[in-house]
Design a protein that fits this description.
By secondary structure, this protein is of the alpha/beta class. It has 9 helices and 6 strands, in the order E-H-H-H-H-H-E-H-E-H-E-H-E-E-H. It has a 6-stranded parallel beta sheet with strand order 3-2-1-4-5-6. Strand 2, helix 6 and strand 3 form a beta-alpha-beta unit. The structure holds 6-O-phosphono-beta-D-glucopyranose and magnesium ion (MG).
């Protein structure tokens, strides 16, 4: 199968910022006395900050106002940004860097499709600020995954049809979004076994054999 472009999710695919999302939400949930674990955390993959908060609050014993929820989301984001500030180019693995370079050298175009509003900052931290030809992220969408909007935006920025692009995802919501948009999807990490994905990656480097 030859794809003209690959659209990568960011958190949990390009870098391990999914772990920082977990730690920041865990700190907030503990402070509020709300049960939160890694199983619940997996439901937050790919969905927006406010939707993630709503999922966490399902286990809350009290109702919160819209103002309180906005403050919680901001508190989490501040905790998360503290962790992001500690990131550097060392947080881009050799495997991801080498694979991205090899794909681009073969003429495969590369883009980002992420629900995160922190995407530009993270790409800068890990030294990929100018690497991707197109970046569609949480700042330019009105629906987060599983809606296909962010991937359709990335494909449009590239001037390509979804059928020409492969999406790489670690979230079930992301696989669903890709398929809904008419993209083939390569699933890894938490979404590895998702049957809607065309490819199942044990490692990021396996993309070399696909594209
Ligand atoms: C996605 C993550 O990439 O971005 C989600 O998988 C997160 O867990 C979402 O909620 C929004 O991120 P941010 O950085 O805008 O809060
Ligand atoms: Mg992800």
């Amino acid at each position: 199968m030859s794809y003209k472009a690959i659209i990568f999710d960011l958190d949990g695919v390009i870098c391990s910022t999914d772990e920082y999302h977990y730690q920041a939400w865990k700190t907030l949930a503990d402070r509020l006395g709300i049960p939160f674990d890694r199983t619940i955390n997996n439901r937050l993959r790919g969905v927006s900050r406010m939707e993630s908060l709503e999922i966490i609050l399902e286990k809350a014993e009290q109702a919160y106002t819209a103002e309180e929820k906005a403050a919680f989301a901001e508190e989490k984001n501040n905790l998360y940004r503290e962790l992001l500030h500690q990131m550097s180019t060392a947080d881009l693995s050799d495997e991801v860097r080498d694979t991205l370079n090899a794909l681009r050298a073969k003429g495969v175009r590369v883009a980002i499709g992420s629900s995160s509003k922190n995407t530009p900052f993270i790409l800068e931290r890990i030294g990929l600020g100018n690497f991707f030809e197109a970046v569609a992220d949480g700042n330019c969408i009105t629906h987060s995954k599983p809606h296909p909007e962010v991937f359709l935006k990335a494909a449009a920025m590239l001037g390509l049809d979804p059928a020409d692009c492969l999406v790489v995802e670690d979230a079930h919501a992301g696989v669903e979004a890709a398929v809904a948009g008419g993209f083939d999807c390569a699933a890894m990490g938490d979404a590895y076994s998702d049957e809607r994905a065309r490819w199942h990656l044990n490692s990021f480097g396996e993309l070399n054999g696909i594209a």
